[in-house]
C-alpha cells in the first residue's frame, strides 16, 4: 500500500486571479524545449518531436529524460493556449478539473483517500488558482466492503481524467470483475491492489489493458492458478503479489 493524502483543493468559492509574467524570463519548460519567444503551438510541437527523437528510450534516451521532456511539452502547450485565449483555455481545463473534483469528492465522502500531484511549472506564469486546475490525480486508495461496483460510478463517468492515475488500491473491497471491466482510460496505471476482493479470471481482461502496470496484488481473489499462469505468460515483467498478508507498496 502506498501512502495517500487528501488533495488541497482550495476555496472553490474564491474568484480566480489573473496571471503575471516577468519580462524576458523564459519558463523552465520552454528552456527544456529550446524555445524562445514568441511561442506558438506549432513551434512547441516541432521542438518536442525533434528532441523526442533522441530522448525516447527506444532511441537510446532514458525514461526519466523522456518523461521530463513530455511534461515540459504539455506545460508549454498549456502556456501557449493560456496566452492565446485565456477564457477558452480556462473553459476547457475547468471541465477536466470538475471531473477530477467529482472523483475526489466521491472517494473522500466514502472514507477513501486520494493523492494529487501539484504542477509547479505553470504556477509562476498563470497564478496559483489557475495552476490548481492542472494538478493531476495520481493515486486513489478506496478500501472496505462497502466499496462496490456501484461506488465506481464517479470513476466510470469521469474516465477522461484517469490517464494520470498511477496507483489504485481497492483492497478488501466488494468490487467485482464486472466493475473493473468498466474502468478504461487508466493508461498510466503502474500499481493496482486488488487483494481480498471477489475479482475472478474475467478481471484479467481489464488488467491486460493497463500496459504500464508494474505491480499487482491479487492475493485472496478468485483468480485461480490457470488465470495466474496466463497472466505470467502474457506479462512476464509484471510483479504479481499473491499473499494474503498486509503488503506495503512504495511509490
General description of the model:
The protein has 251 residues and is α/β, with parallel strands linked by helices. It has two domains: 28-84, Helix Hairpins (Orthogonal Bundle); 94-241, Leucine-rich repeat, LRR (right-handed beta-alpha superhelix) (Alpha-Beta Horseshoe), CATH 3.80.10.10. The protein is 41% helix and 9% strand. The chain contains ten helices and six strands; from the N terminus they run H-H-H-H-E-H-H-E-H-E-H-E-H-E-H-E. It has a six-stranded mixed beta sheet, covered by helices on one side. Helix 9 links the parallel strand 4 and strand 5 (215-217). Mean pLDDT is 82; it is low at 6-24 and 247-251.
Shape descriptor reads globular
Q: Are there runs of 5+ residues with pLDDT below 50, and where? A: 6-24, 247-251
Provide the CATH superfamily of the largest domain. Ribonuclease Inhibitor
In round numbers, the mean pLDDT is 82
Write out key terms for the chains shown.
251 residues, globular, alpha/beta
Task: Show the helix and strand layout.
Layout: H1 28-33, H2 41-55, H3 63-84, H4 86-109, E1 113-117, H5 123-126, H6 128-132, E2 136-141, H7 153-157, E3 167-169, H8 177-181, E4 191-193, H9 203-208, E5 215-217, H10 225-234, E6 239-241
Parallel strand pairs: 2-3, 3-4, 4-5, 5-6
Antiparallel strand pairs: 1-2
Amino acid at each position: 500500500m502506498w501512502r495517500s493524502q487528501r488533495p488541497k483543493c482550495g476555496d472553490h468559492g474564491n474568484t480566480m486571479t489573473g496571471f503575471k509574467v516577468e519580462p524576458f524570463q523564459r519558463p523552465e519548460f520552454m528552456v527544456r524545449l529550446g524555445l524562445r519567444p514568441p511561442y506558438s503551438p506549432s513551434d512547441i510541437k516541432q521542438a518536442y518531436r525533434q528532441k523526442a527523437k533522441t530522448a525516447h528510450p527506444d532511441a537510446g534516451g532514458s525514461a526519466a529524460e523522456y518523461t521530463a521532456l513530455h511534461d515540459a511539452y504539455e506545460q508549454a502547450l498549456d502556456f501557449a493556449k493560456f496566452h492565446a485565449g485565456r477564457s477558452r483555455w480556462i473553459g476547457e481545463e475547468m471541465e477536466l478539473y470538475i471531473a477530477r473534483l467529482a472523483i475526489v469528492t466521491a472517494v473522500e465522502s466514502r472514507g477513501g483517500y486520494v493523492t494529487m500531484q501539484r504542477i509547479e511549472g505553470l504556477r509562476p506564469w498563470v497564478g496559483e488558482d489557475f495552476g490548481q486546475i492542472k494538478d493531476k490525480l495520481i493515486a486513489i486508495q478506496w478500501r472496505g466492503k462497502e466499496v462496490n461496483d456501484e461506488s465506481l460510478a464517479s470513476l466510470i463517468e469521469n474516465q477522461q481524467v484517469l490517464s494520470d492515475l498511477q496507483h489504485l488500491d481497492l483492497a478488501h473491497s466488494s468490487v467485482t470483475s464486472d466493475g473493473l471491466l468498466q474502468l478504461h482510460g487508466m493508461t498510466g496505471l503502474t500499481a493496482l491492489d486488488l487483494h481480498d476482493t471477489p475479482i475472478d479470471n474475467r478481471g484479467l481482461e481489464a488488467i491486460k489493458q493497463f500496459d504500464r502496470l508494474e505491480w499487482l496484488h491479487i492475493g485472496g481473489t478468485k483468480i485461480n492458478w490457470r488465470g495466474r499462469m496466463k497472466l505470467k505468460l502474457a506479462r512476464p515483467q509484471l510483479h504479481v503479489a499473491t499473499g494474503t498478508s498486509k503488503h506495503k507498496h512504495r511509490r
